[in-house]
TrEMBL record:
Residues 339-349 have a biased composition (Low complexity). GO terms for molecular function: NAD binding; oxidoreductase activity, acting on the CH-OH group of donors, NAD or NADP as acceptor. Pfam families: 2-Hacid_dh (PF00389), 2-Hacid_dh_C (PF02826). It comes from Sphaerotilus hippei. This is D-3-phosphoglycerate dehydrogenase.
Length: 349
């Protein structure tokens, strides 16, 4: 088997891959761990949903595996160090979600600048025009957002710990570099896209967030672990910060007993920013093309230093039984060029 696809995939992408490689397409296979493990032991590459954990044990069984494709983001369930040691490439299309994330941030900002329904008649909304927008983390998405807000007449300031204030890229981006505390003191709107690393845990806290400009609104499409939760609760609870929208909030962020439980002005969503039909299709094509390259350029043999646990002989690999599923969950391993197994399951809302 060349390629295992264990998640729903758009029909055009599926057919394109099917014309080039021997596929096993079973969108529900991730719900059957034993069958998934058996299929992975025969696959040279795999597309796996974000909820599927990939660790050293998984890779030890998947001796033919050369690449793992992830179409959408989600819980970080891949042991990247183990993949690197095994010589397995983790394939993602990182730029596919940029337009979606930038649009989401803009829409969220416009929403937060208006009063909540229960505040009508008591609080007046605000317009984006002539506001100062502060960007924390100069990612592709925040740079796109900078372009989107300029027609409103906004001033754009930014901070990124990896880009020095003298770097010429700030001029290219038309963003004024500024210290983090000063950004919070100055901006009417703050948009956070900073990539999360453990050293950044709680970096937005007492030294900067606590000094936020009165009436500020905040949108974050990065990890909520960037925030010191107690400080965020205080600035929202006091009304100094009007509202905040966190789109990658930890599951228990507002659970009873947590400092952000029932904090006024806080909205959380589970990674909605990147979830659009268009971004998923861009990502699917990007991942598919890279997997195609890998499959065409690597031999169909077990990785160096590994051996099959259950296929030690030179016998042909046997087909993997498909789990009980709907009519589009194919259980067959098809040779290259064989007809696709019907239309793909709906892969986006």
């Amino acid at each position: 088997m060349d390629l295992l696809i264990a998640e729903p995939l758009e029909a055009d992408v599926l057919q394109w891959l099917d014309s080039r490689h021997a596929l096993h397409y079973a969108p529900r296979l991730a719900d059957e761990p034993a069958l998934l493990e058996e299929a992975l032991s025969q696959a040279r590459a795999a597309m796996l949903p974000a909820r599927t954990r990939v660790d050293a044990r998984t890779l030890a069984q998947a001796v033919m595996l050369r690449a793992i494709g992830r179409i959408v983001g989600g819980p970080e369930n891949i042991d990247h160090a183990a993949c690197k040691r095994a010589g397995i490439e983790v394939v993602r299309c990182m730029d596919a979600t940029v337009p979606a994330e930038a649009e989401f941030m803009l829409g969220a900002v416009l929403s937060l600048l208006r009063p909540a329904p229960e505040d009508l008649g008591r609080l007046a909304g605000r317009e984006l025009g002539q506001s100062t927008i502060g960007l924390v983390g100069m990612t592709a998405a925040t740079r796109r957002l900078a372009q989107l807000v300029r027609p409103f007449g906004c001033t754009v300031i930014g901070y990124d710990p990896t880009v020095h204030a003298s770097d010429r890229r700030w001029d290219e981006w038309e963003v004024q570099p500024i210290a983090l505390r000063e950004l919070f003191e100055t901006a009417d709107v703050v948009c956070v896209g900073l990539a999360y690393f453990s050293r950044y845990r709680g970096v937005l806290g007492e030294r900067n967030l606590a000094a936020c400009k009165p009436g500020q609104v905040l949108v974050c499409t990065a990890s909520s672990a960037l925030f010191d939760h107690a400080t965020l609760a205080r600035v929202l609870g006091s009304g100094r910060m009007t509202s905040a929208w966190l789109d990658q909030a930890e599951l228990d962020l507002q659970a009873p007993g947590q400092v952000l439980h029932r904090v006024r002005g806080l909205m959380t969503t589970p990674r909605l920013a990147s979830y659009t039909r268009e971004s998923r299709l861009r990502s699917a094509w990007g991942v598919a093309r890279r997997l195609d390259e890998i499959l065409r350029c690597t031999p169909a043999v077990a990785r160096s230093g590994t051996r099959r646990a259950s296929h030690a002989t030179d016998e042909p690999m046997k087909p993997v039984a498909a789990p009980p599923a709907g009519p589009t969950a194919s259980g067959l391993i098809r040779p290259p060029g064989a007809p696709a197994a019907g239309a793909a399951w709906p892969a986006s809302r």
